[in-house]
Design a protein that fits this description.
- By secondary structure, this protein is of the alpha/beta class.
- Helix 11 links the parallel strand 5 and strand 6.
- Helix 1 packs across helix 13, helix 9 packs parallel to helix 10 and helix 11 packs parallel to helix 12.
Length: 318
């Protein structure tokens, strides 16, 4: 079953992705055409392609692995024209994104009957656009004609509770909120209960933004997860890590820490339109084995798109 059947038409997803990747394309991937136009496959060509990938934050390990795979195909297929490298490079980049195994129980292509309510724990550091992403994700569910309950689990800041409540009102979601300073685990517990009693498709639980280096805060995330499991032993069905694309390789470090703490199942990559280094997507997929499930392509409630690996790579080469 496709991820969110009534989401934006494929043409619209492709258009938004292309616009969001404009800076990355102009700054880095746009150079590939000039490199390949020389027509000759030699060491200089490979060095320049590696420079492009590194500059776009694909990362050294992932860049080397991608180019080794392309080189092997060039040799095995006895290719001589540099223009042939373009299609092979695109195919390998798509493969990096598509071979990541599915982790969660809600959003895979092979999920026929997702659990109800699907419990989604949303985590990330401060300033990544986490609360905004929750609002947009709730909108995707509501657009499917579904009921969704969001939990204001960032109880450290009254502003965070207000922001999530405002988003819920805008998109037509229901909200569970306690007072500032309340136990976030209790918010998670009550959110799932509300979603169960109301027959909701999803319970989306916000958490306080936290630095991945702060041990006590990461321990609190583990506690929230344990409480969720007590309410529903099969939950959380997805742990969505929100990463800011503009932070580049630091996003990779964050992802590693959160994956160790709460078993992240999927990535939402925000602010893609604000960076020239959108290649971090490939490093996340290759080095962490975590699937990118959503990309933020703007500020509006419709600007969270289910991730399409082929559309993403094609947009880099337009």
């Amino acid at each position: 079953m496709p991820l969110f059947r009534r989401a934006a038409p494929q043409e619209q997803v492709e258009e938004k992705t292309e616009i969001a990747l404009a800076r990355t394309r102009r700054s880095w991937f746009g150079r590939i055409g000039g490199i390949l136009d020389r027509g000759k496959i030699d060491d200089e060509l490979w060095d320049e392609l590696e420079e492009v990938l590194l500059g776009a934050d694909v990362g050294l390990h992932t860049s080397e692995k991608i180019l080794e795979a392309v080189k092997a195909r060039v040799e095995s297929e006895h290719l001589r024209d540099a223009e042939d490298v373009r299609d092979l490079l695109k195919e390998e980049l798509i493969a990096v994104l598509e071979r990541v195994p599915l982790r969660g129980a809600l959003w895979g292509e092979d999920v026929v009957t997702p659990p109800r309510p699907g419990v989604i724990l949303v985590v990330g550091v401060n300033g990544t656009g986490k609360t905004t992403s929750i609002g947009k994700l709730a909108h995707l569910y509501v657009s499917e004609g579904e009921t969704v309950v969001v939990g204001a689990g960032d109880t450290f800041r009254a502003a965070a509770i207000e922001q999530l409540t405002s988003w819920a009102e805008q998109v037509g979601a229901q909200v569970v909120a306690h007072k500032e300073g309340a136990d976030p685990s209790a918010v998670a517990f009550d959110t799932i209960g509300a979603a169960q009693s109301r027959g909701a498709a999803a319970a989306i639980i916000d958490t306080a933004g936290r630095l991945h280096t702060k041990f006590n805060l990461m321990e609190e995330l583990r506690k929230i997860r344990r409480v969720i499991e007590r309410r529903d032993p099969s939950a959380p069905h997805e742990v969505l890590l929100v990463l800011d694309a503009t932070t580049g390789q630091n996003a990779l470090i964050q992802a590693k820490a959160f994956a160790e703490a709460v078993d992240v199942t999927a990535i939402a990559l925000t602010k893609l339109d604000g960076t020239s280094k959108g290649g971090i997507v490939f490093a996340i997929s290759e080095e962490l084995g975590l699937p990118v499930r959503f990309v933020g392509t703007g500020e509006g409630q419709d600007d969270l798109s289910p991730f399409d690996a082929r559309a993403f790579v094609e947009a880099l080469f337009e």
